[in-house]
Structures are given as structure tokens and as C-alpha cells.
Design brief:
Dipeptide-binding Protein, domain 1, peptide transmembrane transporter activity, SBP_5_dom, Dipeptide-binding Protein, domain 3, 560 residues, 6-stranded mixed beta sheet, Cationic peptide transport system substrate-binding protein, D-Maltodextrin-Binding Protein, domain 2, alpha+beta
């Protein structure tokens, strides 16, 4: 803390370090600056991993067919106006809202309103089906040399991490329009989670007309860099790694945003963001370091702290491909050897809770009756089981700070120390995400333990459990335990066959019971999302996914 305060003091007093470009008058008079960091930044949520772009850009520029109701299994229409399922539950018919206009930008002028073509294109794109974009044969007259052909081919091989993780292409058979404002989604089998996936922050709707224009120019990659949506704000300017400037969409189909300008400062780390916030260079700051929150309390009534429970889980995965990790007694003993409360105190500084179940408490499927973790910290019992095993284990740690684990290296060292006391030698290996993905692809992942986690974009428990523990995701970046249980898989599938949330919740409770018994992963922490704001900013509502809808924000009269 002393080092942090010293560094902060230097930052605040150094005029050279903080000689930032002047904020334009129009932003000063009718706008807001939001400080965050640029991890995982993208203008296309379909192709992005969870990151900054989800929290501060895509929810402002785009709209989805549905929105999630707070902490509920229910959704409410957005670009959709109404919907119904067929009697067999395998066809979802969506009636679309009329009169919704796409944003007019310097790079695209729409000639029509939003319609079914846009929905069919957007969904088919993530399914890997025919995307309604004609293929062009390169010819010398078009000036396409061999190198460009290779680049263009690779650019079209787009990856969709969220939709790949939930196996959306194994849920949906086809998507088609029956008239300009009606879309039908044909499912391979009834699936009670489909609406929640269509309401996730990844399921945004693009302009098919814009995509056709870009495709005709062999420039489809621009769809991901110069966005065009139907949301409350549109892109004005962007400097990579520095800032995004949004301006109000004057043709927005709902009530217009109250603030005309939003600047998203991407240039700072967490300490620098706090310094800017205290200097009033930004009025909102996202996800401050937990160690900084005590300092803010000393500022009195100048600032507010907003916290929400979130759909995330930090865990330690046991690799079932390794013989020693297949022993359930060893897994239980390792769980008893790790002091999770100490981790919460020293890694999260009490901005997280000890995870005693798999599904986070914010989900509608959680409840007091769901199964709880029964292997509390008991080093004496763990040592009794482990000290004669003569185990030497390799633990991999991703070299990146994520929402569910802000300090993975420190956590790994704490776990290593705890296991050493129980008689286990742990070798910690820091790896990059690309290194890990390559080994998973080659099926050569030779770790025994790996620190990981999951950050969901839906309150539906299927979107939380299936990616990290289902048989279909073995050897993938999400299921790092390589665990596959037919009985668990059966419970997951049963949970999708009924639309009654109470019946579904009971199926997921049984699924959790099997996880906590077999322990393919050791749950560690569920992290709260934190936002700090100037008290002059009103109408701040943060979702369980860390999103803030800028269109609702305003300043107190005279407060700006």
C-alpha cells in the first residue's frame, strides 16, 4: 500500500506525465469521460473474448433481439417486438420491430431500415452457415496478388469464442426469414437457453447492407473495425490503445441519450486511471484495483462506489489426462490443503466471495437449496492423505489478469505454498494463451493443475456449466480439466428440455452436486464488478456483466 500511495503521489504531482490532450469543448459542455483499460478491445462483440469492448462500446453501438431482465430467467424484446415457440419447441418465430434505423456514418449511409435480412445475416455468420455474401473469384484485373489472396482468405476465417463455447451450431439447424419482419430459428431440439443466448452481449445485429457493400470491395474485415449499429451511440473517432469517442445517435429508435458525447479513455493502467479519476479527468472509472478502494473512502462524499455480483468463477482445474489427477481422494485432499479464505483476503481484498458452489449466486438457478462445497480448509487432514504420495505436480498459469483473477501469479504462489505444507511439490509454469491453445490443439497439455476461470455473458446456468465441463469441450480452452461425465452431460441436456425455471434449476443442482463430489475443478472465488463515479453523475445502473448503458446517464443540474 505504501508503494502504491508513493506511486500515485508521483503521478498526481508530475505535470509532464499528465500533460494530456485537451478535451474538446463539446465534451466538456455535454459529455462524459470514462476511464478503463484496453484488454480484449474490439468493435465486434461476436469475435471478441470478454473484455473492455463488451463493457463500454458494443452495448452502446449495437442492439440485440432481446435483453435480459435483471437476475431473471426471463428476457424482454428489444429489436424483436414479440416471439413464440412452436408446439414441439423446435421453431422460434420472432416478429421484428419496424422503423429502426441503422447509424449514418462517414463510411456508410444506409438506404433502408433494419429488417429480417440483418438478423439472418448476423446469426448465420456466427453459425458458419451461408452468410448471404456472394463469393468473388479473384482475377488479375482486380489487382489481387497471391499475398492478398492469402490475407483475404485468413480474414474470412473468423472465430466466435462465445458461440463456439456454447456450441450454438449444434443447437440451431437454420435461420430464415418468412417476410421482411419475421424470422424463424429452427432448432435441432427444444432448447430452453436459446433466448438467453440471443440476449447475450455477443449476439448483436449487424447491417447486412453494410456487409454486402464491404464484401463487394473485398473489405469485409472493416465490419469489425468501423462499426455500424442501431444503438444509442455511434463511433466518432478511435485511436488504438488511447481512446474511443462516441457521439449520440440522433436517429436512435428509443429515447435519445441525454449526453451527446462519450470519451472512453483506454490509455491507462489501473493506478493511472485512478489518478485521472481523482483529478476529475474522467467521471467514471471501471474496475479499479481492489487495493485502491480504501484510498477512495478517504475522499468523503466526492465519489461513489458501485458493486454488483457477477457471473464469474475463478477455479483450479485438475487435468484428468494425468493419472495422479484421476484419484478423487487426491483431488479432495488438495482442496482441503488450499486456504481459499486467505486467497480472498490477499488477492481480492474482500471484493470477492469464497465460491462454495459452481453457479454464481447472481444466477436465477442459484439458491439456498443448491449444493455447497464440503471440503473446507483442513491442512492437517490434507497432509495425512498427501504426505506419503510423493507427488510432484506441474501447475500452469496464464500470464494475464482477468476479471475472475486479477493476480494469477500471486495466487499460484499461494497455492504452491499451501500444497508444500501438505507434502506436495508444485512447479509453476507461466504460459501465454497462444501457447496453451496450441498444446490443447495438439492434445499435448501436460499440466497437472491449471489456474483458470469462466466469465459468462448470460444468467442461464447452461452457458456457465457446459463450456467449462461438458464432454463436447474436452481439449478446448474452456474445459481445461478435460473432464467428461455422461451422467453430468445427461443432466445438462435434461435442463434444456423444459422451459420451467424451477424444474431447470433442480436439474442444475443435481449437476452441481456431481461436480462438487467428483471435483474436476476446485471453485475458488466469485468476483464482484466494481465501478467508481463522481457523485454528480446520475442514473448509473451496472449489470451483472459490468455493463453501463451510457444512454441513461446524466449530470445533476449545475453539477457538470
Amino acid at each position: 500500500m505504501l508503494k502504491f500511495l508513493t506511486a500515485l503521489s508521483l503521478l498526481l504531482t508530475s505535470s509532464m506525465l499528465w500533460a494530456a490532450p485537451r478535451v474538446p469543448d463539446e465534451v466538456q459542455n455535454n459529455g462524459l469521460v470514462y476511464c478503463t483499460h484496453a484488454t480484449g478491445f474490439s468493435f465486434n462483440p461476436q469475435t471478441a473474448d470478454a473484455g473492455t469492448s463488451m463493457n463500454v462500446v458494443t452495448e452502446q453501438i449495437y442492439n440485440k433481439l432481446f435483453e435480459l431482465k435483471t437476475n431473471s430467467s426471463q428476457v424482454e424484446p428489444s429489436l424483436a417486438q414479440s416471439y413464440e415457440f412452436s408446439n414441439d419447441g423446435k421453431t422460434l418465430t420472432i416478429h421484428l420491430r419496424k422503423g429502426v434505423k441503422f447509424q449514418q456514418t462517414p463510411w456508410f449511409i444506409p438506404s433502408r431500415d433494419f429488417n429480417a435480412d440483418d438478423v439472418v445475416f448476423s446469426l448465420n455468420r456466427v453459425l458458419g452457415h451461408n452468410t448471404s455474401l456472394p463469393e468473388f473469384t479473384p482475377t488479375p484485373s482486380k489487382g489481387m496478388n497471391r499475398q492478398y489472396q492469402i490475407f483475404y482468405g485468413l480474414a474470412k476465417k473468423t472465430r466466435f469464442p462465445y458461440f463456439d463455447s456454447i456450441k450454438l451450431n449444434q443447437k440451431i439447424e437454420r435461420v430464415e426469414s418468412t417476410d421482411p419482419y419475421t424470422v424463424q430459428i429452427h432448432l435441432l431440439q427444444p432448447d430452453a437457453s436459446i433466448l438467453s443466448h440471443l440476449a447475450s452481449q455477443y449476439a448483436v445485429i449487424f447491417s447486412h447492407e453494410y456487409a454486402l457493400q464491404l464484401n463487394a470491395d473485398d473489405n469485409i474485415t472493416q465490419l469489425d473495425t468501423l462499426p455500424v449499429g442501431t444503438g444509442a451511440y455511434q463511433l466518432k473517432d478511435y485511436l488504438q490503445g488511447q481512446y474511443v469517442r462516441l457521439v449520440r445517435n440522433e436517429n436512435y429508435w428509443k429515447e435519445k441519450a441525454k449526453l451527446k458525447n462519450i470519451i472512453i479513455d483506454l490509455s491507462s493502467d489501473k493506478i493511472a486511471s485512478l489518478a485521472k479519476f481523482l483529478n476529475n479527468e474522467c467521471q467514471l472509472a471501471a474496475f479499479p484495483d481492489a487495493t485502491q478502494l480504501g484510498l477512495l473512502k478517504e475522499q468523503g462524499e466526492r465519489f461513489q462506489t458501485h458493486t454488483v455480483e457477477s457471473m464469474n468463477l475463478s477455479f483450479l482445474a485438475f487435468n484428468f489426462l494425468r493419472p495422479s489427477m484421476q484419484d478423487v481422494e487426491i483431488r479432495h485432499a488438495i482442496a482441503q490443503a488450499i486456504d481459499r479464505k486467505k486467497i480472498i483476503k490477499h488477492i481480492y481484498y474482500d471484493t470477492a466471495t469464497v465460491a462454495n458452489n459452481i453457479i454464481p449466486s447472481v444466477s436465477w438457478a442459484a439458491g439456498d437449496d443448491q449444493p455447497h462445497f464440503d471440503y473446507d480448509y483442513n491442512p492437517a487432514q490434507a497432509k495425512k492423505i498427501l504426505e506419503n504420495k510423493n507427488l510432484t505436480l506441474e501447475m500452469w498459469v496464464l500470464k494475464e489478469e482477468l476479471v475472475y483473477n486479477p493476480s494469477p501469479i500471486k495466487m499460484a504462489e499461494m497455492i504452491k505454498s499451501d500444497l508444500a505444507k501438505a507434502g506436495i511439490t508444485v512447479k509453476v509454469r507461466l504460459v501465454s494463451r497462444n501457447f496453451l491453445m496450441q498444446h490443447l490443439h495438439d492434445k499435448s497439455e501436460d499440466y497437472d493443475l491449471i489456474l483458470s476461470g469462466w466469465l459468462a455473458s448470460s444468467l442461464d446456468p447452461d452457458a456457465f456449466l457446459r463450456p467449462i465441463l461438458s464432454c463436447s469441450t474436452v481439449h478446448e480452452i474452456t474445459n481445461l480439466s478435460n473432464w467428461c461425465s455422461p451422467s453430468f452431460e445427461q443432466l445438462l441436456n435434461k435442463g434444456l428440455s423444459n422451459n420451467n425455471p424451477n424444474i431447470r434449476a433442480s436439474d442444475y443442482h443435481l449437476a452441481q452436486q456431481e461436480i462438487l463430489s467428483q471435483l474436476p475443478i476446485l471453485p475458488i472465488a466469485s468476483v464482484k464488478r466494481v465501478l467508481i463515479s463522481n457523485t454528480h453523475v446520475q442514473n448509473i445502473e451496472m449489470t451483472a456483466f459490468g455493463n453501463v448503458h451510457f444512454e441513461k446517464l446524466k449530470f445533476k443540474r449545475g453539477g457538470r
